[in-house]
Design brief:
heterodimer; A: alpha/beta; Rossmann fold; two-stranded antiparallel sheet; about 25% helix; B: Mth169, Chain: A; 2 helices
């Protein structure tokens, strides 16, 4: 199963995302921001980093990259897309996910192992978790505070679109402690913490993150 | 030559920790007049001649799609001569 990883100028975690895909049993395919060619991949990961230096707003310029026009069309037809950290910001800017990510409440860049609860295990990227499973995945960002209006929040909560929530102290001021959301269809998922940094206990705090990647592979195999 | 000014502000209901940090720094410097501070962005865009009606429409579109994120921000477009 071929899963693409997009590299924007300023992406940092594209290699770790590719490693996670391979570790989960998939084939990682490098995709370039400047091309609209999805190279026949069956899912895409938008990795973490600082695309275009986070100028203007995080993800605001990356959202208009040629590869994004292909991804937006595909995602609207059910193609699986996972945005991690900066990738989550890009998905919000592209309006594939509601809301936006703003500066952490404490203004500091945070980097720590974060406890999360997986609250929706029916999306393409979370079906391998058990419901309400607690996981530990690194969180590292400066603009991770999830914000949206009250109506959007209500829709997200009532529709089960909150896929992961922070446990313990609120790290960044996100509404309702939201760490990750999905679209209504469950094919597009955005997550602030970095599952690609938690795929084995040699290099991460746990192997909990690997399940995001095995989930989508399982989903794709089941569909084939 | 006209100058287009686009001012972008976070919507009132969106948390603005940068503005809050500035707001709490003011009294530390002895400036006690402020009851709250919100921080925004200002874009100055220069163009040759005065903008036509269709150019103004384009500027509005650019402000809405790129310069601001309507999910969390509002914008105002002004033309300075």
């Amino acid at each position: 199963m071929r899963i693409g990883v997009v590299t924007f100028p300023g992406s940092l975690d594209d290699r770790d995302a590719a490693r996670a895909i391979e570790h989960a049993g998939g084939t990682a395919v490098s995709l370039w921001h400047g091309s609209d060619n999805l190279k026949e991949v069956e899912a895409v990961v938008l990795p973490g980093g600082f695309s275009y230096g986070d100028y203007l707003r995080c993800g605001a310029i990356a959202r208009f990259a040629p590869i994004m026009s292909s991804i937006i069309i595909a995602a609207e037809h059910g193609f699986p897309v996972l945005g991690i950290c900066n990738g989550f910001q890009v998905l919000c800017e592209a309006h594939l996910l509601p809301g936006a990510l703003t500066r952490n409440q404490g203004l500091h860049f945070l980097c720590r192992d974060q406890r999360l609860r997986i609250e929706n295990n029916s999306t393409m990227w979370t079906n391998g978790f058990s419901l309400n499973q607690e996981v530990v995945i690194p969180l590292k960002n400066g603009e991770g505070s999830f914000q949206c209006d009250d109506e959007t929040l209500k829709t997200l909560e009532s529709g089960g679109q909150v896929i992961a929530r922070y446990l313990g102290e609120d790290p960044n001021g996100s509404r309702d402690l939201i760490a990750g959301i999905s679209n209504a269809r469950g094919n597009v998922v955005g997550l602030m913490p970095h599952p690609e940094h938690a795929i084995d206990t040699l290099t991460g705090p746990s192997n909990d993150g690997l399940t995001f990647f095995t989930s989508v592979l399982h989903q794709l195999v089941g569909r084939a | 030559m006209a100058k287009i000014v686009v001012e972008v502000m976070l919507k009132p209901e969106i948390l603005d920790p940068q503005g809050q940090a500035v707001g709490s720094a003011l009294p530390r410097l002895g400036f006690t007049f402020a009851t709250s501070v919100r921080q925004g962005k200002r874009f100055e865009i220069e163009m040759v001649g005065d903008p036509s009606e269709s150019q103004m429409a384009d500027i509005q579109k650019a402000a809405e799609t790129l310069l601001s994120n309507p999910v969390i921000e509002t914008y105002v477009v002004k033309v300075e001569k």
